[in-house]
Amino acid sequence: MDIVIIGLLLGGTYALMAVGLQLQYGVARIMNLANGETLIAGAFSTFWFYAATQASPLYALFLVVPAAFVLNWTIYRVLILPLVRRAKNQGKLEVDSILATFGISFISVGVLLAIFGGEYLDYSYLARPIFIFGERYGLNRVVAFLASAVLCAALYLWLHKTRAGLALRAVAVNPSASGLVAINVARTSAFAFALGGAVTAAGGGLLSMFLTFDVSLGVVFTLKALVIVILGGVGDIRGTIVAAFILGFAETAVATLVDPGLTLAAAYVLFMIVLLVRPEGLFGRRTA
Amino acid sequence: MSILDTPQAVGAGTGVTAREWRNLLISGAGFIAVGFIPLAFGGYVLQLAISIVMYAALATSWLLFSGPTNYIALSTAAFFGIGMYTVAGGIDLIPYPVLIAGAGLIGAALAAIVGLATLRVSGVYFVIFSLGLAELVRQIMTWLQHVLGTMSGLYVTIDRSEPMYFWQLLLLTAVVYLVGWWIGRSRLGFALRIIGNDELVAVHCGINTARAKVILFVISSAFASIAGALVAPRWGYVEPVVAFSPFVSFQVVIMALLGGTHRLWGPVLGVIPFVLLWEVISIEFPNQTTLLLGVCFLLIVYVIPNGIIGLIEDTWHRRKAAGGSAPGPLQRLLDASPGSVKNLLQRGKSRNA
Description:
The structure holds two protein chains of two kinds.
Chain A: H1 2-27, H2 35-53, H3 57-86, H4 90-116, E1 129-132, E2 135-138, H5 139-161, H6 163-173, H7 175-180, H8 185-207, H9 218-232, H10 237-257, H11 263-277
Helix pairs in contact in A: 1-5, 1-8, 1-9, 1-10, 2-3, 2-4, 2-8, 2-9, 3-4, 3-8, 5-6, 5-8, 9-10, 9-11, 10-11
Chain B: H1 18-34, H2 37-40, H3 43-69, H4 76-90, H5 96-118, H6 123-148, E1 154-155, H7 162-184, H8 187-197, H9 199-204, H10 209-235, E2 237-238, H11 240-243, H12 246-259, H13 266-284, H14 289-303, H15 307-322, H16 329-335, H17 340-352
Antiparallel strand pairs in B: 1-2
């Protein structure tokens, strides 16, 4: 029971970071290997905000999200767009964007090291127990989960009920056909990339409420987000959220039953299973 | 009919030509000449030279797989670390030369598992899998040591002089080159070039693309593991954080890209300047290494996407073009040689139709 609830709480918070990557990869078609560093930056900024003001870390999101949006939009315009223009085909763009974002991730680690140093950072916020079905859980985990759920629901509604959301989904399905129905694909892609970065940073802010971070963890979170996106199916938000819960359960189960140091192995096992059984993901469409 | 059934199109199956013998002899003489470095220099220069041959072996073996397929493998550190750990774990029980071979075999086995799982599906999944592989192996190693109750670090105590490391690594590099040269003129190499150009075309030619890719990945990774096994005693003390440092993967990719990935001897042109540059960076800016490494990487991706070799070939061709005469048919064929497979196939198709 413990595992189920802790897994649920963790998975719910993972959902947010993975939805961010989903927007970047599913819509903007950029495999962003620097996604984890965006998350770490969000977590560190939240830490900073809390240390400086002692106000609820949730307020930090109002600063972190717009900042991450602007930063990711700039990265897309300055660094990614030339690659999009230069690429002759999707395969070339994939190679180039993997290389470029890999480089960006190292630069981000360098910048974060310079600003925050290499120590583990954590803070204690709402570290009070809350009782669910008679068991104790950290209140901060519950609050982070609820905030993540609200944000995910808002994003889902926005994507499915508004015209702008429709445009985003259209680009996710087919960029060239979207151009034919008067969608500005370049702008939509840039927007999706920026929004994805903002959502991931928000996920980092929420995770920082109950996890300990250091700079080198970025790649681990990139990997977790990638596994979730692939498990759920590229281009499908529902799938991403379901997959985030699966990873949350799997990690919690491994951490409780085997060893807390093996959480990445849990993600890899899931990854292997998907690759062997259903490479297009739970909700993905099989490409012809 | 498969294109691979016509050996004269590839040169596969035919003997080694006089020109190839000449190139082999020149390369062999070059390697022997380089082998005299430890006799002429010692100390700091020899240290740098060891670093250069080590990265030359790693970057060239990386190229064996990633060059023709265009799949960026970010897993060098995982295999390098496995090589080190094989030696560190078994040095008290098993003779060192056996361990080196064992490291290659373990690396090959892991590469086969990874390759079989990911390379059948798509390139992106392979890249993602390789990205976290070092971290995964590190977690498992740490856990295993925890369960077995051993210390997190292991000592490797065998006596080897610095020149010996240099010669061992140089020999490894020579073997990597030889294997690369052999693959390049075999059916496997031809199949890989087609895959790199257009995977769909390769599938329609009747090439088992997954098998070709897995074989190459296994070979490339086994070399990385052997390199790890060779330098383990030089480090003396092996622990997970150091052995599986993501920097190794990253530097290998940078060096290969800097040199150029469309020629076998490309990476070494990147290794030499980068090792020297890195030496300067880590002495002058010890706290900004990660940042500067990232900047170097982006500069290479954006400014010289075809590497130093690309630059050399560009100027060479421009000078040729400025020389007046239009390139003859043979010259045109040579110009197009690395990317000509698709053209050849298209020509073949129209002839058949």
